[in-house]
Amino acid sequence: MFTGKIAMFLYGTLFGAAGLKLLASKDARKVYAQLTAAGLRCKDEVMRNVDEVQAACADILADAKQINAEREAADEAAFIEDAAGEEAAQA
Q: Which residues lie closer than 8 Å to 28 by C-beta, 6 or more apart?
């Protein structure tokens, strides 16, 4: 039983050392560089989309403010007409 644990430890150590060698190889570095480059391209595309959405939202907000300003002006004009009509009725 004790020799089995020692053998397992040794196999794990060898496997780990081989894995580190494999991960540090030139081919692995090329793969890491390609994956990182792809990630950066993806980030740039996402940020471009975010900028487009923000611009669209700013346009929508400006339109909404304009609609509210027009509605407020119309309500104010209607209030003034109502007040003028009540004064004329009382006179």
A: 22
Instruction: Please tell me the number of Cα atoms within 13 Å of 35 on its side-chain side.
Output: 6
For residues 82 and 33, give the distance between their C-alpha atoms in angstroms, rounded to a whole number: 73
For the stretch 24-65, pLDDT in tens is 888 888 999 999 999 999 999 999 999 999 999 999 999 999
Domains of the chain by residue range: 26-90
Sign, Cα dihedral of 60, 62, 63, 64: positive
Contact 61, 55 (CB under 8 A): no
Q: Is 0.85 topped by the overall pTM?
A: no
